[in-house]
Design brief:
Blueprint (H helix, E strand, L loop, with lengths): L4 E6 L5 H14 L1 E6 L1 H6 L2 H8 L18 H8 L2 E7 L1 H9 L5 H7 L5 E5 L3 H5 L1 H12 L3 E2 L3 E4 L5 E5 L3 H11 L10 E6 L4 E4 L2 E3 L6 H12 L3 E6 L11 E4 L3 H11 L5 E4 L6 E3 L18 E3 L3 H8 L5 E8 L3 H11 L4 E6 L11 E2 L1 E5 L2 E4 L3 E2 H18 L1
Parallel strand pairs: 1-2, 1-3, 3-4, 4-5, 8-11, 8-13, 11-12, 13-16, 16-17
Antiparallel strand pairs: 6-7, 9-10, 14-15, 17-19, 18-21, 19-20
Helix pairs in contact: 1-3, 1-9, 4-6, 5-8, 10-14
The protein binds ligand PMT.
Length: 398
């Protein structure tokens, strides 16, 4: 990616130590300018950031050392391709939400015209407080990107949401926001994600280990590239990207019906879900009671949603299937590509380290009808963009 100008605004919280790693990473490929609040300087010396970026840190509006022939808060806001506030304290979120401009950093935010990412980090009760939550909603409603804080043991000893996510995760989001090309603008992208659950009785089901991470990464990437995204998701424990239209489903039959309803209005269908091929023939009304005998389940085939979509899609619709295999990956994937009339198939093997269920990374081979490309291990987010690059090229050629 071409070098961009990233303005990192730092407010005063203990999570500053993670901002150092982020600034160091970003400085390797971008121009980075740091601005600190006066409270932030209580936690860390500007010298650290000056050394990491090779640029002076700005903090004060007035006083010795400030060049009053310039208007720093306006110049800084104009300079930036992207502004990241990390960590964003409850106080700084409140100032942004209500337009306070009583120091350099808050004044600069009022003049900002570039995309803004804020990364809240604070005590869990401060984060959950209605005032903070309302301020976050205000910022989101203005188009500001707010990164969800992660959960865990906090510096104050409380346990809960409020931790600053890892620098690598913040950097991934920054890189995505810096992609200016909205090559999916105006397109409807439908994505299936996660597992299906096939009920046996009111308390038990057959399912698989899909976490939804691959499908959700595709949804986020498609959103970032300007698409309208419909996400048909089996039960998962991760949050959907804000901005997607979510269609929660349980069984393969539910997923099938959702795909049937959306297919005509879909420009790209990406089937990352791990769908159960079989379901119990009978779903019992009451819990199955254990007995001394073995239990035999009778299963019947679920609809093959991808195959149905391959037969019923319009010519303009691009169809992308996945294949998850434990052996003969490419041979089986090639068969699926052809028999299900896919334009692209993403093959991943459960036997490969860093690939498949639950991981943040994947190792995949992309198969077109006339060629294939094996990709190195990368984050599911990076893979999502590779898949979308391929689908955009297929769409353009249709
Ligand atoms: O969710 P994660 O934890 O991030 O894991 C990601 C993943 C491993 C689930 C994902 O990368 C993946 O490989 N998804 C497809 C899993 C799968 O069901 O593969 P399959 O080879 O069994 O199915 C082939 C294709 O047919 C898939 O696109 C699947 O969605 C589709 N299918 C399968 C069965 C069925 N009845 N209907 C379908 O549409």
């Amino acid at each position: 990616m071409e070098k961009k100008r990233i303005l990192v605004g730092i407010s005063g919280g203990i999570a500053i130590y993670k901002a150092c790693q982020l600034v160091s990473n970003l400085s390797k490929t971008h121009e980075v300018q740091v601005v600190m609040t006066s409270h932030a300087k209580e936690f860390m010396s500007p010298l650290t950031f000056e050394t990491l970026t090779g640029r002076p840190v700005y903090s004060e509006m007035f006083g010795p050392g400030v060049d009053h022939s310039k208007v720093p808060h306006i110049d800084l806001a104009k300079w930036a391709d992207l502004i990241v506030i990390v960590p964003a304290t409850a106080n700084f979120l409140a100032k942004m939400a209500h337009g306070l401009a009583d120091d350099l950093m808050s004044s600069m935010m009022l003049a900002a015209r570039s995309p803004v990412l804020v990364c809240p980090a604070m005590n869990t009760y401060m984060l959950a407080h209605e005032a903070t939550q309302e301020n976050i909603h205000i910022l989101e409603s203005r188009g500001i990107h707010v990164l969800n804080a992660s959960s865990g043991l906090l510096a104050c000893g409380d346990y809960g949401a409020g931790k600053l996510p890892e620098p690598g995760q913040i950097q991934d989001i920054i890189e995505t926001l810096l992609i200016e090309e909205k090559d999916l603008a105006g397109l409807n992208v439908t994505i299936t994600a996660g597992p299906t659950r096939e009920a046996l009785d009111p308390v038990r089901f057959i399912s698989n280990y899909s976490s939804g991470k691959m499908g959700y990464a595709l949804a986020q990437a498609a959103l970032d590239r300007g698409a309208r995204v419909r996400l048909i998701s089996g039960p998962v424990s991760i949050d959907p990207p804000s901005g997607v239209e979510l269609y929660p489903v349980e069984s393969a039959q539910d997923m099938f019906e959702a795909v049937q309803n959306l297919l005509d209005d879909t420009d790209m269908l990406i089937k990352a879900a791990a769908v159960a091929d079989y379901r119990p023939k009978v779903i019992l009304d009451q819990k199955i009671k254990k007995s001394d005998d073995d239990l035999t389940l009778s299963l019947e085939r679920n609809p093959d949603i991808l195959a149905w979509a391959g037969e019923h899609k319009k010519d303009r619709t691009v169809l992308c299937g996945f294949a998850m295999e434990t052996r003969n990956l490419l041979k089986n994937a090639q068969k699926k590509l052809e028999s299900k009339h896919c334009d692209l198939l993403v093959a991943n093997s459960l036997k490969e380290e860093g690939a498949g269920f639950g991981t943040d990374t994947n190792v995949a081979t992309l198969l077109w009808p006339d060629r294939e490309e094996t990709l190195p291990m990368m984050s599911k987010k990076a893979l999502a963009h590779k898949i979308l690059d391929a689908l955009v090229a297929i769409k353009e050629a249709k």
